[in-house]
Amino acid sequence: MTLTVVAAQPPCVSYDVAANAATHAATVRSAGARVVVFPEMSLTGYELDAPAIAAEDKRLAPIVDACGATGSLALMGAPVDAGSGRSHIAMLAIDGGGARVAYRKMWLGGAEPGRFSPGSEPGVVDVDGWRVGLAICKDTGVPQHASDTAALGIDAYVAGVLESADDAAVLDERARRVAADHGVWVVLASFAGSTGGGFAEAAGRSGIWSADGVVVARTGPEPGAVARATLG
Containing domain of residue 83, as a range? Predict the structure, then answer.
């Protein structure tokens, strides 16, 4: 079977979960894809002090509704509670039945360890017979992460990322390495525009790479663009 995937880089309003959820929902409705992937911390912006979001947060309802209407699975970035005043940088999986935490970032960078705890294990979601491995930003630059995720028997490696415009080449380098090492499709949804953490100009340039490392879809740096491909 084939799997239609969109890597989206929507505009983001820092800290405004309701506004960002509305944008995510509109993106899902217009994507026409079975899986829609969003960047790291896409629901809050890369604001390391943003409050954690619970899977049952009512502000996510527009996304649940959009996924129910389109039959899509949306994968998006948010801080979630880890207990004892700590949080995880996480990937939420949302469909018409609701939201759940699908994966917690394992490899933290920069100032992240000051607030966040690393996740303890790789994550995979099953979609229409496809095994989709999950990653968040720095994870993609750690060969062990891709190896440990691939060991779970994946068909695609999907990540929400945030890089500065000056580091845009990193996206292609990492995607090609994962594809070459593990023979899987790679999907990177990359933050566009500006956000916290010193990212005055994020890279954008989301993309989808085939299992032999060829770019099959790519955006520019602008917020609102999407990359779309049918994996098969």
Answer: 3-231
